[in-house]
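Q: I'm writing a short methods note and want an example of a predicted protein-small molecule complex. Could you take the sequence and the SMILES for coenzyme A and return the bound structure as tokens? Please keep the output block clean; save any remarks for afterwards.
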Amino acid sequence: MSAKLRPIREADIPHLETGASTPEGSGDFQWFGFRTFHQLRERVAADGCLGPDGGAFVVECAGAVAGWVTWVKHSWGPEATSWNWTIGIILFPEFRGRGIGTAVHKELVEYLFAHTRVERIQASTDLSNVAERRALEKAGFRQEGILRRAQWRMGKWHDQVLYAVVREARE
Ligand SMILES: CC(C)(COP(=O)(O)OP(=O)(O)OC[C@H]1O[C@@H](n2cnc3c(N)ncnc32)[C@H](O)[C@@H]1OP(=O)(O)O)[C@@H](O)C(=O)NCCC(=O)NCCS
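A: Understood, no commentary inside the block.
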């Protein structure tokens, strides 16, 4: 099953909201309780969720909303000189385990290197999230380290793994 990334439309928002409003829909590693989608609605109306400090795309599969990807600015120093992107992804259950996550990571990396001046794209995920770790590795990300007890989720702290792909290594 092939997937493509495209900007979020207003009509997608109810699908994203329904899809991500349960632990099953978000996935155990992305369930942090109920969250408001008002800000997403406002952002889509304001700038299509495609601003200079980050954005989001829908993952579309055979005309269906299969999930979404996000990228936000993060800095390891002064933002003007040291910013990079941190990416995230949720695929809804029926679209997992079919190679879509791997393909979408690759497509997002290509897009961000092509259309922004970023040097480094990073992602972190739970130590136990084998599917995301493999999808990142297959998309060219390298493991950089373990972030101990970095994330509070479902009543306890979880270690995270930091991954990144850098432009220089691809040239
Ligand atoms: C994590 C996620 C994006 C991965 O995408 P995906 O389309 O399911 O993964 P793929 O089909 O591309 O598979 C990638 C690799 O993970 C493996 N994999 C897939 N699902 C797996 C599972 N449930 N358990 C273990 N390995 C799994 C695949 O076998 C493949 O590895 P391989 O090529 O070595 O065999 C997707 O499952 C998802 O959105 N999950 C819920 C939300 C989430 O966890 N997001 C990331 C949080 S940071």
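A: Remarks, as requested: Residues 100-115 form the longest helix (16 residues). The helical segments are 13-20, 23-26, 38-47, 79-82, 100-115, 130-138.
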